[in-house]
């Protein structure tokens, strides 16, 4: 029988990405707060209770690393951006365009130079850690620095960025520095597991696929240059941090109300993302043919981990068990089985709307993942 390494730090053999379906009480409280019917203190009290209840459920499910479910956020990414100095909340003409629908139209723009002092997520982390059992890790999820830059590639936001940062290199440097400050503050608060959520690579493979579809000989140099820019800002933000801080990344193709935004295999980004991003593990969407095959995993260094997102969070229906097991072993042809783990392909509620499944189905997915992981890795 093969002996596998026991995981004592993230990623764990059975894992989650981060967000959970918001309880109805929390949704109602957020709606009342938006209408001015309750105070911030009232909303915070509801959030606190919901997060404590969630942590207990996560621990009961056997998760080794828990999150606050992103219950204090409306979006997986924008709330973090709004917490940085020099960034403001705006509404644009349109939201993000997904395959089947358009999101709400919130966005972020600049109102000054960017910095990361006193980010509200640090206090959010402290609360979660204070209510988590000893021996259980708290995973803090934040959008990747590249994702922040991506927001300012939206046509409506480009002029705003240039108003404050006519020099692109200065913008990239300040974004990396602001992130570094937040991460250091999270570490000082006790954070030892950080996850950078990053859709930029999914957007990139989608752009590659669209270009090549139109013309197999299309010039992709601009896309490759953007990849290198995103890689540089991500690595700069996480450079020179304490050795006992585990930093992982999650790569997605969009996860909103059970729909998606991008498609394409990992091949076009593997040389930059897999080979050169300085993280411990890659949480990868692999729940549909949109993610392509496992061949690009050969670019992941053998000492790094790949968390296979083979179980979808977009539907409550459980996958066929043997098919998932077969796919894990297929992935092991390209990356060592001892350096593979299993999770949903994304969170259950990347925005407060949540995906189209029930809370019972959500927890059944996690139980399913745990049972498969225990069968394979012990």
TrEMBL record:
- Gene Ontology biological process terms, A to Z: methylation
Q: Which CDD domains does its entry note?
A: CIMS_C_terminal_like
InterPro entries recorded for this chain?
Answer: Met_Synth_C/arc (IPR002629), UROD/MetE-like_sf (IPR038071)
Q: Does the keyword Thylakoid apply?
A: no
EC numbers listed for it are 2.1.1.14
Q: Which residues form the Cobalamin-independent methionine synthase MetE C-terminal/archaeal domain?
A: 17-352
A single Pfam family it belongs to is Meth_synt_2
Q: Which NCBIfam families match?
A: PRK06520.1
Protein name as it appears in the record: 5-methyltetrahydropteroyltriglutamate--homocysteine S-methyltransferase
Species for this entry: Limosilactobacillus walteri
């Amino acid at each position: 029988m093969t002996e596998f390494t026991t995981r004592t730090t993230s990623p764990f053999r059975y894992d989650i990405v981060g967000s959970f379906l918001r309880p109805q009480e929390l949704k109602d409280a957020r709606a009342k707060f938006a209408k001015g019917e309750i105070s911030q203190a009232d909303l915070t009290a509801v959030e606190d209770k919901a997060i404590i209840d969630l942590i207990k459920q996560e621990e009961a499910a056997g998760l080794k690393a828990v999150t606050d479910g992103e219950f204090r956020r409306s979006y997986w990414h924008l709330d973090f951006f709004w917490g940085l100095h020099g960034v403001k909340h705006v509404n644009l003409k349109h939201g993000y365009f997904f395959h089947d629908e358009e999101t709400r139209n919130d966005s972020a723009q600049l109102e000054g130079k960017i910095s990361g002092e006193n980010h509200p997520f640090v206090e959010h982390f402290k609360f979660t850690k204070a209510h988590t059992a000893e021996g259980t890790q708290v995973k803090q999820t934040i959008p990747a620095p590249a994702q922040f830059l991506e927001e300012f590639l939206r046509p409506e936001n480009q002029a705003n960025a240039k108003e404050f940062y006519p020099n692109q290199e200065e913008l990239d440097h300040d974004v990396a520095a602001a992130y570094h400050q937040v991460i250091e503050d999270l570490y000082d608060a006790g954070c030892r597991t950080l996850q950078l959520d990053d859709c930029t690579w999914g957007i990139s493979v989608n752009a590659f696929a669209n270009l090549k579809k139109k013309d197999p000989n299309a010039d992709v140099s601009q896309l490759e240059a953007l990849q290198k820019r995103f890689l540089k800002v991500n690595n700069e933000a996480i450079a020179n941090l304490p050795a006992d801080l585990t930093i992982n990344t999650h790569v997605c193709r969009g996860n909103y109300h059970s729909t998606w935004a991008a498609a394409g295999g990992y091949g076009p980004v593997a040389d930059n993302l897999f080979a050169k991003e300085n993280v411990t593990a890659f949480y990868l969407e692999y729940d549909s043919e949109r993610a392509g095959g496992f061949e690009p995993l050969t670019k992941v260094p053998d000492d790094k981990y790949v968390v296979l997102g083979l179980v979808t969070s977009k539907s409550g229906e459980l996958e066929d068990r043997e098919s998932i097991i077969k796919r894990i072993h297929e992935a092991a042809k390209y990356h060592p089985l001892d350096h593979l783990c299993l999770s949903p392909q994304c969170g259950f509620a990347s925005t407060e709307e949540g995906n189209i499944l029930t809370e019972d189905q959500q927890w059944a997915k996690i139980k399913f993942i745990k049972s498969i992981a225990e069968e394979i890795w012990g």
